[in-house]
Design goal:
Layout: H1 4-12, E1 33-39, H2 47-60, E2 65-71, H3 83-86, E3 90-91, E4 97-98, H4 100-109, E5 118-120, H5 121-133, H6 144-163, E6 167-172, H7 182-195, E7 200-207, H8 220-231, E8 238-243, H9 249-259, E9 266-270, H10 278-284, H11 287-295, H12 306-316, E10 320-327, H13 338-350, E11 353-360, H14 362-366, H15 372-376, E12 381-384, H16 393-405, E13 410-413, H17 415-427, E14 435-436, E15 446-450, H18 452-455, E16 465-473, H19 478-482, E17 488-495, E18 497-499, H20 504-509, E19 513-517, E20 524-528, E21 535-538, H21 553-569
Parallel strand pairs: 1-6, 1-7, 2-5, 2-6, 7-8, 8-9, 10-11, 10-12, 12-13, 13-21, 14-15
Antiparallel strand pairs: 3-4, 15-18, 16-17, 16-19, 19-20, 20-21
Helix pairs in contact: 2-4, 2-10, 5-6, 6-7, 8-9, 12-13, 13-21, 16-17
The structure holds glutamine.
């Protein structure tokens, strides 16, 4: 580990030597500890859930734990990624379009995070190329080492300072061995050297296979994965073993022997009924205690929050059961709708109910393969989620008509809000062929039209109306009741189109109530239909602000209404 003297020197020597470590002004080594989480063997192990659970434990112990996720792709953010391939785009309050793991962090740590908690390959290289173009490298050839790695370390240290973090939890996306994250892992190796062993700690999440034809666990792929990490100069302090069933002592011993990690630091993280039990599982393995000791953090008592345990208990042992239909283009892929499903989880715990999901492929309704009646059979409520483009929209509109007429709970999210307006326009206001200009640019009644601010914008990346906005909630409405009579609430948006202000009066005259509006513009944000048990649409995405112990009120209202509907059917 470099002495403090050298450490300061590194900062000075950036121009003329091989050292290129930009230390932010006032940075204090050792003030922030770094926990770096990598994954080996394969992706999709739930590194995010593990990291967030560890973060929750540290947070519960009173530490300021700040997460940061690195994604190796060259996209600058997740805004242009197809949710079908990469999972949903999670929108932060500051408008950042991020990876769905950041949603997991917000939910587990119960705090809002920002663009500073999300780093992509695209973002790093954009910064570097911009610097190069403006001559900031003073004639040097710009290299992966030291410039790219230097930029990454700077980003982390800046975040450590800005957030005043006790612990910075760094999740390295992808798998060890990928080209995409190799320079990032190298940056972490350097960081550990510069910060010192007592200030950094590495956790490798790996996978222990259990082939059916053998009927026993095998540790070889895990060993190989860890070996690959060690070849990059990183000695893990912990190995977290994902597996189907609890990892046997024999396998843990083997991994321990091959990786120089003491057996008590080789933790079994087998499949669970719900991810919300992972913090308890890590606590039982004393992982928080050992990490704190390792990093010299004075571990306060972690109070086992009664509300949290109750929440988990309600999830595992439900007393009721309802079925919620979700329509959409990406049906079948749970990751594309991750936040909606988790928001339903939070709300269902409140009512001790199980929620079965019925995916409805609306293109099948359009092409006559599925009747609306059949699609709506046995559902207690339906969600039409966010979406883009024409595919399946007529099927969605047909479903909404059925739900409105048959008084079945309906929650429309963003695109679902817009579809409800089109349906109401066509079938109640007599605006035949009403549509959105996103779907039918030349339609006669353009009840959904592009936002004026969006007309000027070209290109597709990061330029929608994005992020948290305040909403004025109209007193005396159903929405106001759901939001506990709060006059102003904050929710997150991601859209280009809106309810065309020219038609607001027409809709209101026919009984549609706009119960939430933007404070400064005539942008309609919540709609409701009096006399219907639950017919609510939101131009925003309420699922992004739902947290385990503070579920979003609209989801709570929806699940409650669906439960009532279910009881009335029996
Ligand atoms: N496509 C619609 C718009 O851009 C809805 C977007 C969404 O559902 N997130 O306004």
């Amino acid at each position: 580990m470099p002495s403090d003297e050298v450490f300061r020197d590194i900062a000075k020597k950036t121009e003329e030597s091989e050292y290129y470590t930009l230390i932010p002004e006032g940075y204090e080594k050792g003030r922030t500890k770094y926990i770096i989480v990598t994954g080996s063997v394969m992706s999709g192990l739930g590194k995010g859930i593990f990291s967030a659970s560890l973060g929750k434990l540290l947070g519960d112990s009173g530490f300021n734990c700040t997460p940061i996720k690195f994604d190796g792709y060259l996209n600058v953010d997740a805004g242009t990624l197809n949710p079908y391939r990469h999972g949903e785009v999670f929108v932060l309050d500051d408008g950042t379009e991020s990876d769905m793991d950041l949603g997991t962090y917000e939910r587990f740590l119960d705090k809002n995070i920002t663009k500073n908690n999300y780093l992509t390959g695209g973002k790093i290289f954009t910064a570097i190329l911009n610097k190069e173009r403006s001559g900031k490298y003073l004639g040097r050839d710009v290299q992966f080492i030291p410039h790219v790695t230097g930029e990454i370390k700077k980003f982390l240290r800046d975040l450590a300072m800005k957030s005043k973090a006790d612990v910075l939890l760094v999740e390295v996306g992808g798998t060890v061995g990928d080209i995409e994250n190799q320079y990032f892992i190298e940056a972490m190796r350097q960081l550990a050297y510069e910060e010192g062993r007592e200030n950094t700690c590495f956790v490798n999440v790996t996978y222990v296979i259990e082939p059916e034809f053998l009927g026993e666990q095998k540790s070889k792929p895990a060993q190989m994965g860890i070996k690959q990490l060690m070849q990059l100069g990183i000695q893990p302090d912990f190995v977290v073993c994902r597996s189907k069933t609890p990892v046997t002592t024999k396998v843990r011993e083997k991994i321990s022997v091959y990786s120089n990690v003491p057996i008590e630091n080789v933790v079994s993280a087998h499949d669970r009924k719900t991810v919300y039990t992972v913090p308890t599982m890590l606590k039982e393995a004393k992982m928080d205690k050992i990490i704190c000791k390792r990093l010299g953090l004075k571990n306060g008592k972690t109070p086992e929050s009664k509300e949290w345990l109750e929440f988990v208990e309600n999830l595992i042992n439900p007393e009721h059961e309802i079925t919620v239909g979700i329509t959409g283009k990406y049906t079948g892929l749970r990751d594309s709708y991750a936040s909606i499903l988790t928001a339903l989880e939070h709300a269902r715990a409140k009512f001790k109910t199980k929620v079965n999901i019925k995916w409805i492929e609306t293109t099948e309704i359009e092409n006559g393969k599925l009747s609306v009646e059949e699609a709506m059979k046995d559902v207690d409520g339906v969600i039409v989620p966010g979406g883009f483009g024409k595919r399946g929209t007529e099927g969605k509109i047909a479903c909404i008509k059925y739900l409105r007429e048959n008084k079945i709970p309906y929650l429309g999210l963003c695109f679902g809000f817009q579809m409800a307006i089109i349906e109401f326009g066509r079938n109640i206001c007599g605006l035949r062929d009403a549509n959105s200009t996103e779907i039918e640019p030349d339609c006669k009644y353009q009840v959904i039209d592009i936002l004026p601010e969006q007309k000027k914008i070209e290109g597709l990346g990061g330029n929608m109306r994005l992020g948290g906005r305040n909403i004025d909630v109209k007193p005396g409405t159903f929405a106001s009741k759901l939001y506990g009579e709060r006059k102003s609430v904050r929710e997150r948006f991601r859209h280009r189109f809106e309810c065309n202000p020219e038609y607001i009066e027409t809709f209101e005259k026919k009984g549609l109530v706009f119960s939430g509006k933007a404070p400064d513009y005539p942008i309609m944000q919540i709609l409701e239909l009096p006399g219907h048990p639950f017919f609510v649409g939101t131009q925003f995405h309420p699922e992004f602000t739902s947290r385990p112990l503070t579920p979003n009120p609209l989801y709570v209202g929806f699940v409650e209404a669906a439960l009532k509907h279910n009881k009335s059917r029996k």
